[in-house]
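User: Can you predict the 3D structure for this chain?
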Amino acid sequence: VQLQASGGGLVQPGGSLRLSCAASGFTLDDYAIGWFRQAPGKEREGVSSIASSDGSTYYTGSVRGRFTISGDNAKNTVYLQMNSLKPEDTAVYYCAATPYYRLGYQLRPTRPADFSSWGQGTLVTVSS
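Assistant: Here is the predicted structure, written as structure tokens:
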């Protein structure tokens, strides 16, 4: 299981970015994919997750309505479209995977401890 996150960068408040998480060694159908972020001096927090097998998605409250998670099974890639970005969204963003059955086939508040395979991070900086 390998994950490659990309798409981070510097954006002004109110701007948009799309992060990509390219998966290899497994198919999205059997896994839940989560996006997490970690700001300096803070704990890693769950942002959003998706299960391609049933189309379920989950968003933490601070990003709901601004971020959209989606998957492209043909490309084995999950995306995180981030709109209306705020300075408090600044963080290193990580994607991670876990077999969906380990979550009981239910997405819930996305917790790092629930995810077993991690990609490297991509830095998102929201600043004017």
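Residues 95 and 103 are 16 Å apart (CA to CA). The two ends are 37 Å apart (CA to CA).
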